[in-house]
Amino acid sequence: MTENCAPAGAVDPRTAVEGTPARKRVAVGSSIGATIETYDFIGFGTAAALYFNQVFFPSTDPLSGTLLSFATLGIGFAVRPIGGIVGGYLGDRIGRKPVLVGSLLLMGIATVLIGLLPTYDQIGVWAGILLVAVRVVQGLAFGAEWGGAILMTFEHAPWRKRGLYTGITQAGFPVGLLLANLAFLLSVPLGDQWAWRVPFLLSAVLIVVGIVIRLKVEESPEFESLKAEGEVSKNPLAEVLRTDWRNVLRAFCLRITETAGYAISVTFVLSYLSTTELADRSVTLFALMLAAGIGIAATVAWGALTDRVGRRPVYLLGTALSVAWGVPLFLMLNTGLATAVVLAFVISYAVCQNSLAGVQGAWFSELFAARTRTSGASLAYQLSAVVSGFTPLVATALYAGTGWIGPALLFSGYGVLGFVAALSTRETWGREERAEVAALEAALAAPSAAEPVRRPNTVSGA
Length: 462
Known about the structure:
The protein is mainly α. The protein has helices at 13-18, 23-55, 62-78, 80-93, 96-114, 120-123, 126-156, 162-170, 172-187, 192-195, 197-215, 221-228, 236-243, 245-275, 281-309, 311-333, 338-366, 373-389, 391-402, 405-424, 431-445, 457-460; strands at residues 10-11, 453-454.
């Protein structure tokens, strides 16, 4: 049984085994929303690495411009915990669906505004200030997004396939990454002024589509059950910090390996390849797009694998690979060979990053009780963004002082942190939990399986 013993409520056995009738629509709808949010947020990272150092900051000192550009990128990550706290609180208090719609709308407005901002040559230092202000709004919206999307999918899914279904939602992130970089690749011929503006302006179309889809998504059945039973937490944030702070800390450390690893192996590497002239923009964008394309299937596959073998074994594998990959990553990049660069991106993203991202949706959700689940999972997930958001800045400073070995060892160090955290975090979908669900499935097949059953605590995280 889990550490969390809050009442989980009753659930129809067929719903437990098969999920709700809306399970697929919710998973796809959440994934599409995650795609749009990622397109907007990650597009900023690509633009920061390739354009913003010259567009919004003085171009007389390239290194300083790059540092300022990555600092602006980091600010968006720094405010994500605030968005996660607000979104998590509202998700546990008023429902998951309103948070999904609101965060997407806020992100869309901020992203379109980026495409309309004046440059440093036009208004001087105010260009950077306006960029920071809009980036803060982006960070707040993105921070509120993840918990709502994942929890909606998790709570509509059949217990035995929660890894698969949350993996589908998590796959929205590589789809957004692919679309964002495709937009930047196709906009290159437009020239430096429009090459970075058009991708942000195009997000307006995606936002309209996403809002329409999310308005049709049904509210989480577990939240509706909690509300009907009067079990909605009055202060979910305070409750989860008081009763479950250890899981918040564990999930925070688990998450850092994935998100900070991405910040080095993708965001920093884009700038590294550009400034060292090891590869031109078309090669790096193609490599990232290919990695993202493979990552769509990889994320779902990694999530589905956890339904068969458990959450922790897959995470231990992913973090161990991250520990080993730091130095080989840069050795491959330093060859300057296009094939080596492409392969480096694929391994970094589809293997190291996706093996962790595909697990997080189900594992983090199962660590927390239903009444505080959005607050707990969102807080842990977004707090790590503070570290990862400034990682490209730290990696750039390390590179300036030590060369490529500094960022390489930093990448491996994040892997060590995640590996230790995985060892100290309980398995939530082991043999005992899978046996409980198998027994429920057998009971459902019997003629007497007509009464509602209690959720197995080990499965619901409650």
